[in-house]
Inverse folding.
């Protein structure tokens, strides 16, 4: 299957803008909308397609045997890449952070069922990307390598197309959850003049004035009208507490929008807190990006979530 054929399986007609009605937003004189990217494909969900498609194109044009990429046991990115490679008739090697567990996570089982190879590496080696690459290079020379989250120029280029799905001039602020920064850099490239892109990092960053994420977005996004708000990570990457789970259930009850505790729930919760504390001027128009991907929720106990 070539890229145009794969594209037919990604249904962009399922993208829509959901307008949120809430007394708080009315009181603060704010418009709050959510760009729903989560329904475009069961597995290549949300922003994953945008961050992957030009990597896939490059791999096909270069005649690579397959793709190799990296992530954790509940990685939305790995599952999306596995699905895309399977549909495209390409091999996929998922390099998984951590030793092989006695019982595979539901996400890893699904990746393996797609025909992908699971390659587990120690957390220590995984952190040292140069050593990790050297350890794998000889075995996978004929594979196209994709960084975590699709990070890289191809991923940013794809993410820059997300705002083409809406009339972006309707908004003063674009808000998104931030992991690798790939989507935010793409949004920043395509944002209109005078439009502020706000990122909610889901990883704990000690130095908010000097860090790799800020430098990456500033250099790759090619724009200065952005802010990273570092206080909404909830304890760090993939950390959560009862308060966040309660918020996710409340958000679902009010708006019927599913979220995950790793990314989107932290974005939505941060936005609500910012609105409550008058961060935005009256008359501001906010667009929140629902980046899809609910794999992290599969690690929760049954019945913790209402959806």
């Amino acid at each position: 299957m070539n890229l145009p054929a794969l594209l037919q399986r990604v249904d962009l007609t399922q993208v829509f803008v959901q307008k949120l009605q809430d007394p708080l937003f009315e009181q603060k004189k704010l418009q709050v909308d959510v760009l729903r990217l989560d329904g475009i494909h069961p597995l290549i969900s949300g922003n994953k397609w945008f961050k992957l498609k030009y990597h896939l194109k490059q791999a096909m044009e270069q005649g690579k045997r397959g793709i190799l990429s990296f992530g954790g046991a509940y990685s939305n990115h790995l599952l999306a890449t596995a699905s895309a490679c399977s549909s495209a008739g390409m091999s996929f090697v998922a390099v998984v952070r951590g030793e092989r567990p006695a019982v595979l996570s539901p996400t890893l089982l699904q990746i393996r069922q797609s025909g992908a190879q699971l390659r587990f590496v120690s957390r220590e080696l995984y952190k040292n990307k140069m050593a990790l690459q050297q350890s794998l290079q000889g075995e996978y020379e004929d594979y196209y390598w994709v960084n975590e989250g699709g990070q890289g120029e191809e991923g940013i280029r794809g993410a820059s197309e997300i705002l083409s799905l809406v009339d972006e001039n309707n908004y003063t602020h674009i808000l998104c959850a931030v992991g690798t920064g790939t989507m935010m850099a793409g949004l920043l490239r395509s944002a209109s003049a005078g439009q502020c892109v706000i990122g909610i990092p889901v990883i704990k960053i000690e130095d908010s004035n000097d860090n790799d994420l800020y430098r990456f977005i500033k250099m790759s996004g090619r724009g200065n009208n952005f802010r990273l708000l570092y206080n909404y990570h909830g304890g760090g990457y993939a950390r959560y507490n009862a308060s966040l789970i309660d918020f996710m259930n409340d958000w679902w009850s009010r708006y019927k929008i599913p979220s995950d505790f790793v990314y989107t729930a932290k974005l939505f919760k941060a936005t609500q807190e910012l609105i409550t504390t008058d961060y935005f001027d009256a008359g501001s128009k906010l667009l929140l990006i629902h980046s899809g991907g609910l794999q992290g929720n599969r690690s929760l106990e049954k019945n913790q979530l209402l959806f």
Notes: Residues 47-150 form a domain with the Rossmann fold fold (CATH 3.40.50.1100).
